[in-house]
Design goal:
The chain is an all-alpha fold. It has one domain. It is built from 9 helices and 2 strands. A two-stranded antiparallel ribbon has the order 1-2. Helix 1 runs antiparallel to helix 9, helix 7 runs antiparallel to helix 8 and helix 8 packs antiparallel against helix 9. The longest helix is centred in the middle third of the chain and has 25 residues. The radius of gyration is 21 Å and the shape is globular. The chain starts with a strand and ends in a 25-residue tail after the last strand.
């Protein structure tokens, strides 16, 4: 593995919050119905111009199951082995927790079956919709990449994950809480992997050198003017 790593307490806090958000969304959709407010948000996004469909269809590809493995290829070329391992582990974890656990406990059908007048753009009209697997993958990948990126790159991966979730609503594949619950589950999985495998230490977390040869700071005795 490359370079020193840390396991940040803040990641544990986010893990707890994301798990709680997943639970709240699961309870909210457990009846199988789509509430009036959620349906109104769905219709607003789903009703955007059809000319936007090619762009939004492309954006939703960021949540396909093979995306973590695709991102792992350049990560391996950069010898970021912890990131590679995390990305590869995200796939079976997604299949286990999303497909075998959450979907088994909470079942809500797709908008084609639950929201009258839903516009379906090359997506199934029936089947279990909660939580969105695309959102799980997109946000899981974004959160795993975050410690390895800086500045605008960090903003970019989170923006792409968010647009992926919006695209799934626009296409008619999911209602809003489907993608919110999926996003929360993806964040939780990624945080669990970050805590298990560690993340690169940032410059701010580098230990401060101490000892006889360490330059002194400030205006104390021995400081140069």
């Amino acid at each position: 593995m490359r370079g020193p790593v840390v396991r940040r307490p803040g990641d544990a806090v986010v893990l707890v919050l994301a798990t709680a958000a997943t639970a709240v969304c699961s309870v909210a959709v457990s009846s199988g119905r789509v509430g009036a407010v959620e349906a109104a948000v769905f219709r607003w996004v789903n009703g955007w111009p059809s000319s936007w469909a090619p762009v939004l269809w492309a954006l939703q590809l960021g949540g396909v199951l093979g995306m973590p493995l695709l991102v792992a290829v350049p990560a391996s070329l950069l010898r970021r082995w912890r990131l590679v391992l995390s990305l590869c582990a995200l796939v079976p974890l997604k299949l286990l927790l999303h497909g075998e656990l959450v979907k088994a406990l909470v079942q809500r059908s797709r908008p084609g079956s639950t929201i009258p007048g839903a516009v379906l753009r090359d997506v199934p009209s029936a089947g279990i919709a909660y939580p969105s697997g695309h959102a799980v993958v997109a946000f899981g990948v974004a959160v795993l990449l975050w410690p390895y990126l800086r500045g605008r790159w960090r903003t970019g991966v989170l923006l792409l994950a968010s647009l992926n979730a919006v695209a799934r609503v626009y296409l008619g594949a999911h209602a809003p809480l489907d993608v919110i619950g999926g996003a929360a589950l993806g964040v939780a999985l990624a945080m669990a992997l970050r805590l298990t495998l560690g993340v690169p230490r940032s410059h701010r977390e580098e230990p401060t050198p101490t000892g006889p040869g360490t330059p002194r700071r400030g205006g104390g005795p021995g400081a140069r003017p």
